[in-house]
Amino acid sequence: MKPKLPTITGIGSVSPFGPVAGLIPLSALEPSPITAWTTDGLRRAFLVKPFQPASVVPGLKTRRLDRLSAWALVTASLALQDAGIDLSQIDRSRVAVVFATGFGCIELTEAFYQSAFKNGWSGTDPITFPETLANSPAGHVALLHNLRGPNITVSSKNFAGESALLQAASLLRHGQADLAIVIAGDTLTRTMYEWYETANLLSPACFKADTQVEANGYVPGEGVVAIVLEPEGERSVRSYAHLRAGRWAAGGDPLTSITDMLGSSVPRLIIAAGDGAPCATSSSNAAIGRIAAPDAAVLPAQPVALGLTDAGGLLHMALALSTRPDSGLALMLATAANSGFAAILLELP
């Protein structure tokens, strides 16, 4: 019997495009000037505009939470809404939460350590400490929705989002869950931005509004995306994509592994995620040139998703699906110099 493919049935996002249930309405997007802290001249980033989570998900209480946890709650709720999931009608012990992040809840982590520096360890705020844990967002999602299935947080350099997606698909394929909520993202703080600047990794577009965003270097960003993943055909609902196969490796040449994964399949669409590399220097470009068929369409890496250096995989996927690509096979490829690659083969209905 043909195995049921893991299927994306719901999408939710909090990004510079705003909080959205379903496909992201694409529009021209430029980095925003940073006003949340004082900067030495113009500094820009792909920022989420402030909003009240309770205005998107009525009744949601997030006052003591890091923004990453608050956004994870919003995106998970939006993705479940988009998928038409009624949790009261399913076994919640069979619902998994897989969360991916590069940096975790760094806002309240910074606040906790700054408090320790100022007041000593005995003077820190114990209420803040739980939010310093990277797995807090996944825990909050499970608590809000009373989900008792596997609860996993991954932080895989450059490919956290892709790793979470593959982990969730594995849970479904091996019968360890009937449904998975996959979430990936990060927030941007002053300390993180200043680290990028000190390391000389920022794009010229961070300093000048008339500079091309695709220039060498990062334009840092923030945001969280969630998807609902469930076995194909379990419910009569709309499907965004099926996951046919996936590969992830911490090093080596992706060509052999991807060729083996594809077999005789020929993707009509290549999604260049390019995680972990600035736009103009993405090693995905060279890899795609060796893999893509001459007539394959290539969607270039999206700067707004590249800004989420480690956790941008799900945002790349959501943006690609928002372009309404034709049905057929699509290969999402992310590479990072000297750090390996992640490749996911999608079947678009």
What can you tell me about this protein's structure?
There is one protein chain. The protein is α/β, with parallel strands linked by helices and 349 residues long. It is built from ten helices and 13 strands. It has helices spanning 53-56, 67-83, 106-119, 136-145, 160-173, 190-198, 254-262, 284-291, 303-306, 313-322; strands at 6-15, 18-21, 32-33, 44-45, 95-100, 151-154, 179-186, 223-231, 241-249, 269-272, 297-299, 328-336, 340-348. Strands 1, 2, 5, 6, 7, 8, 9, 10, 11, 12 and 13 form an eleven-stranded mixed β-sheet that branches. Strands 3-4 form a two-stranded antiparallel ribbon. Strand 12 (328-336) and strand 13 form a beta hairpin. Helix 2 (67-83) packs across helix 4. The longest helix has 17 residues, at 67-83. The protein is globular. The mean pLDDT is 90.
Topology diagram in text:
Elements: E1 6-15, E2 18-21, E3 32-33, E4 44-45, H1 53-56, H2 67-83, E5 95-100, H3 106-119, H4 136-145, E6 151-154, H5 160-173, E7 179-186, H6 190-198, E8 223-231, E9 241-249, H7 254-262, E10 269-272, H8 284-291, E11 297-299, H9 303-306, H10 313-322, E12 328-336, E13 340-348
Parallel strand pairs: 5-6, 5-7, 10-11, 10-12
Antiparallel strand pairs: 1-2, 1-8, 1-9, 3-4, 7-8, 9-13, 12-13
Summarize the structure.
The protein is of the alpha/beta class and 349 residues long.
Form type: globular
Number of strands: 13
Unreliable residue runs: none
Structural class call reads alpha/beta
Give, in order, the helices and strands: EEEEHHEHHEHEHEEHEHEHHEE
